[in-house]
Specification:
By secondary structure, the chain is mainly alpha-helical. It folds into 2 domains: about 1-280, Fic-like fold; about 285-345, Winged helix-like DNA-binding domain superfamily/Winged helix DNA-binding domain (Arc Repressor Mutant, subunit A, Orthogonal Bundle), CATH 1.10.10. It contains 15 helices and 4 strands. α5 runs antiparallel to α6 (about 110-120) and α5 packs parallel to α9 (about 200-215).
Length: about 350
């Protein structure tokens, strides 16, 4: 909460690395609809695979593992579950289904946080309830000793802090004072520092990240598991969280370590998404449709190079052929000569 509060008071500068992530993710977001047109069957396969990876990876980060032979049954089956670990993984699957099916209507609210927690924790006694006791985050060292890594918000103040966090998120989005992606990462950091539940905070934070991404039009989490990417970079995840939580209570922390990590995860997801779909065979005429869609997007002058950036995997000769066809139909006009010639839509 202290991160969003500080940013809402004024964000003077954005680190260069963060700006690069914002730019790269913004460009990838602009291409995602073109990619999603390519292969419906391939997209269906990616969604099913991402669902499995997300449920398994997010729980495995927290030390919850199951027999690999049982994963398909746990995720997609209806059979009886063997233990608490299987129950938590299926619960995470149900939480993902809730987000995928109703994401646009599911608001960021305290009730949503509690609902997601209840799904991921199953039948345990405090599922969907804020913790009732103070609980610091303990780090166990290799020599067997333990040290307090972070002092979380006292249990009695959690409702107040969570209400303020949700209100700040809504204000950030409605007033657009800071880039929404930065607000998303800041919210995630503040949620983890508040640590509202006795257990399962990490899993709920990753579900909220996915939900907020959908609200911002970033759909890549449907096809590439963000949780699996976080697990693959688990050491970096915990290190950036440690660095960004130091001094959080006083508002003197450096949130950019964690914000950049979130940017790295989303950028990596988009990169993998595009690489996977670019290897899939495209239906006949699909590349032409991609070029048509790209031309529709431009509001002013554009070049062949601009279309190339919007249509990865489409050759320059094909783009020129399609532009010539559109020119003959009176849809576009060429404003110059040579490789760098600009084009414009005629309005027909």
């Amino acid at each position: 909460m202290t991160t969003l509060k500080r940013f809402m008071a004024g964000l003077d500068t954005i680190p260069v690395t963060t700006s690069w992530y914002l730019s790269d993710i913004g460009e990838a977001k602009g291409r995602q609809e073109l990619y999603k047109r390519q292969s419906p069957q391939r997209l269906k396969s990616l969604k099913e695979h991402a669902l499995i990876e997300s449920a398994v990876s997010s729980n495995r980060i927290e030390g919850v593992e199951v027999d690999k032979k049982r994963i398909g049954t746990i995720i997609f089956g209806k059979s009886l579950l063997h233990d608490r670990s299987e129950e938590e993984i299926r619960g995470y699957r149900e939480a993902l289904n809730l987000i995928h099916d109703t994401g646009a209507k599911l608001s960021i609210a305290e009730n949503t946080c509690k609902k997601l927690h209840a799904l991921t924790r199953g039948e345990i006694w405090d599922a969907g309830r804020y913790r009732e006791k103070d609980s610091d985050i303990i780090e166990k060292r290799q020599d067997g000793t333990s040290v307090i890594r972070f002092r979380t918000v006292p249990a009695g103040k959690i409702p107040l802090f969570m209400k303020e966090l949700v209100d700040l998120w809504r204000e950030c989005i409605s007033r657009a004072k800071i880039p929404p992606l930065i607000a998303l990462a800041a919210f995630n950091l503040d949620f983890l520092c508040i640590h509202p539940f006795r257990d399962g905070n990490g899993r709920v934070s990753r579900l909220l990240m996915l939900l907020q991404s959908y609200h911002l039009g970033i759909d890549v989490g449907r096809y590439i598991s963000l949780e699996r990417l976080i697990e693959q970079n688990k050491e970096r995840y915990y290190e950036t969280l440690r660095l960004s939580s130091e001094g959080w209570h006083e508002g003197g922390h450096d949130p950019w370590h964690y914000i950049n990590f979130v940017g790295f995860i989303l950028k990596s997801a988009y990169k993998e998404f595009e690489e996977r779909l670019s290897r899939a065979p495209q239906p006949r005429g699909e590349k032409t449709a991609m070029i048509y869609d790209a031309v529709k997007i431009f509001s002013g002058d554009f070049s062949v190079a601009d279309i190339l950036r919007k249509c990865p995997g489409v050759g320059i000769d094909m783009i020129r052929r399609v532009l010539k066809d559109l020119q003959s139909q009176g849809v576009v006009e060429c404003l110059g000569r040579g490789r760098n010639a600009k084009w414009n839509k005629t309005g027909n």
